[in-house]
Specification:
The complex is a heterodimer.
Chain A: H1 7-16, H2 31-38, H3 57-69, H4 77-82, H5 86-98, H6 110-122, H7 125-129, H8 147-158, H9 168-174, H10 178-189
Helix pairs in contact in A: 1-2, 3-5, 6-10, 8-9, 8-10
Chain B: H1 7-22, E1 78-85, E2 90-95, E3 101-105, E4 111-117, E5 120-127, E6 135-139, E7 142-146, E8 150-154, E9 168-172, E10 187-189, E11 195-199, E12 214-218, E13 225-230, E14 238-240, E15 247-251, E16 263-269, E17 274-275, E18 281-282, E19 286-287, E20 305-309, E21 313-318, E22 332-336, E23 349-355, E24 361-367, E25 384-389, E26 395-399, E27 404-410
Parallel strand pairs in B: 13-17
Antiparallel strand pairs in B: 1-27, 2-3, 3-4, 4-5, 6-7, 7-8, 8-9, 10-11, 11-12, 12-13, 14-15, 15-16, 16-20, 18-19, 21-22, 22-23, 23-24, 25-26, 26-27
The chains are: A mainly alpha, B mainly beta.
């Protein structure tokens, strides 16, 4: 990911943001660093920065693990993850998975809404990410995720530069054209990120 | 069966390099397409829409406090408890002569050592940065570790748990193609003093190379390898019968032939050189729809017992301890880690195999409670991976889903 949130800005922002946990819920200390870029309660407002709210806990802990172990690399996430213990990761994962995803801010073009649905069907996205693309277990929610982030991940899988836990996405993204990537990211980003 | 992490990326990258190097004259040609992940290989067109998928482990582990361990059940008179947690990805176990429990991992890069200190277990990450160090074996003070590509030894390990020696190579080059597939290894020391290990099939249902889909052995003194059993799709658990000294092993059958076919199996190799059927014949009596054409199952050695379709038997050991009732002597315990490749799930237990007066095996569940809802995704909260008899006769069970080891004892309050 290529977020535009620098380290200095991140820590400054951490002081300003209020933490939006569920009512009465204790917010993990480490989460303050996360929300500086990923947004209050893990709802990002930066198109390049992924939302964490409502992501499956196992997905979050797996990504943190991959950043710490060096499989997945990112100038901001790698140093942050390097000091987290397994227990820290599980705590953050549990916290953000409990947060309610904000409504999608991205508006899909009408053309891509139909084309994106077709592509998602054709490339079997729903087989792993779930019928409403809300994710499960170690597989992320795509519905309502930030557009530029989704596009960057798909490009990374296609270029074989994005760490892949099980080879599934490297194989799936290989078949996508650059235009397909653009359409899918536009389509997925505009979907409702929750069931209600 | 489930895919190795990161491995495919590495091998795909390698494949890319190879293609570009070998075909420099055709540099404009795009890279070879990525193979489907090995768990998807062999699906028909309709199955491409199947929601069935392997389950990923919790790579950061789970604390036993967060899990319904009180739901675990064992037969009357037995007791099950959490022995140690905080071992993410815990799989194969080996027991040191001083009581250290060594634990390998497949999707991590670590080998753990667990030491009992006055009833409290201390977990140490003994070795780091290894390539899928699934196999561990212990003999005469030495820990042997099987990685993807090599088997190594660590001498005098139990007195050097905080300062382990450098690895000495027993044999390397075991994964020359560096491709995705069933290439994590189980490792055990045979009664002949040789190290036995598996090299699985490179995909779900494909023609293996001569050294694949087999169990081999290497003499740790000479490094000389012999192929011992062939036609074995993927065996990640074996042991020798305490009396006959014959090799018994579990085997994973192929996927995507339906909920009831084929069975995963338990085998006995009565001699070196037998072929157990893969990829031609499954479970001793079912020809493969593709590879079985013009073949006969009578060519191959049938299994000793069918264990259930897709139930994923991993570790197995004969019970030789003094703690359990006498009728458990020389029974087999098998850790069932699946199933995922069937719509109604089964397994997720430790099964006991009993031999009748004629030596015919039958099975019954021994440790259950991991499976919660056979139709849910996921259906379970934990997955037994290996079993091991301790010096006191209790049975340890590893759970790689959560990174926990349980202990089953008998006659304790």
């Amino acid at each position: 990911m290529n977020g535009n949130c620098g380290a200095a800005a991140m820590f400054a922002a951490a002081l300003c943001f209020s933490l939006h946990g569920a009512a009465g819920e204790e917010v993990p200390r480490n989460a303050q660093t996360c929300v500086a870029c990923h947004g209050p309660g893990g709802n990002s407002t930066d198109p390049a920065m992924p939302s964490l709210a409502g992501q499956p806990a196992q997905f979050i802990s797996l990504q943190l693990f991959m950043f710490r172990e060096g499989n997945r690399k990112d100038p901001q996430m790698s140093p942050i993850a390097s000091s987290l213990s397994n227990a820290d990761m599980n705590e953050l994962a549990a916290y953000f998975s409990r947060q309610k995803p904000a409504a999608a801010s991205h508006e899909t073009t009408s053309e891509n809404a139909a084309a994106g649905r077709r592509l998602a069907e054709q490339h079997h996205c729903v087989q792993c990410h779930g019928p409403a693309l809300l994710g499960l277990q170690h597989i992320p929610r795509l519905a309502g995720q930030q557009f530029a982030y989704l596009r960057a991940q798909l490009r990374g899988f296609k270029a074989r530069t994005r760490a892949d836990f099980d080879g599934n996405m490297t194989s799936a993204a290989e078949l996508l054209s650059e235009k397909d990537v653009e359409i899918l990211a536009d389509y997925l980003s505009g979907l409702t990120p929750r069931r209600d | 069966m489930s895919p190795a992490p990161f491995r495919s990326v590495i091998s795909l990258a390698c494949a890319l390099v190879c293609v570009l190097t070998a075909a420099a004259a055709q540099a404009q040609t795009p890279a070879a397409p990525a193979a489907p992940p090995s768990w998807q290989q062999g699906r028909n067109a309709e199955q491409e829409k199947s929601p069935l998928h392997p389950f990923a482990i919790e790579v950061t582990g789970k604390s036993a406090k967060e899990l319904p361990v009180d739901k675990l059940k064992v037969p009357e008179g037995f007791k099950v408890e959490v022995w140690a947690d905080g071992l993410p990805g815990a799989r194969s176990m080996a027991l040191g002569s001083k009581g250290t429990v060594f634990v390998g991992t497949r999707q991590l890069k670590d080998v753990y050592a667990v030491v009992d200190r006055g009833g409290k277990r201390e977990v140490k990450t003994l070795l780091k940065g290894l390539e899928s160090p699934n196999g561990v074996a212990f003999s005469r003070g030495t820990l042997y570790v099987a990685e993807h590509h090599r088997i190594t030894r660590y001498d005098g390990i139990e007195s050097r748990l905080d300062n382990p020696p450098e690895a000495k190579v027993v044999v390397e080059g075991l994964d020359p193609q560096n491709q995705p597939g069933h290439f994590w290894k189980f490792l055990a020391l045979g009664p002949d003093g040789k190290l036995y290990y598996n090299v699985g099939a490179p995909g779900n249902i494909v023609m293996p190379a001569y050294f694949q889909a087999s169990i081999s052995r290497v003499d740790p003194r000479t490094g000389i390898i012999e192929n011992y059993a062939q036609g074995v799709r993927n065996s990640v658990g074996f042991d020798w019968h305490p009396q006959t000294k014959q090799l018994w092993f579990t085997n994973h059958g192929r996927d995507w032939l339906g909920d009831e076919s084929p069975n995963d199996t338990l085998h006995v190799a009565t001699r070196k050189g037998q072929n157990f059927g893969y990829p031609y014949c499954h479970q001793g009596d079912t020809l493969d729809p593709e590879f079985g054409k013009n073949r006969s199952c009578s060519e191959f050695t049938p299994p000793a017992l069918k264990l259930g379709a897709h139930i994923a038997p991993i570790g197995m050991r004969f019970y030789t301890g003094k703690m359990f009732p006498a009728e458990y002597q020389n029974n087999i315990f098998i850790a069932m880690r699946g199933s995922w490749n069937r719509s109604i799930k089964q397994g997720y237990n430790v099964t006991r195999v009993i031999f009748d007066a004629e030596g015919k095996p039958k099975m019954e569940p021994f440790l259950t409670g991991f499976l919660v809802d056979e139709k849910a995704d996921p259906p379970m909260w934990g997955r037994p991976n290996d079993v091991m008899v301790m010096h006191d006769g209790s049975l340890l069970v590893s759970d790689d889903q959560n990174g926990i080891i349980y202990r089953v004892s008998y006659g304790t309050k």
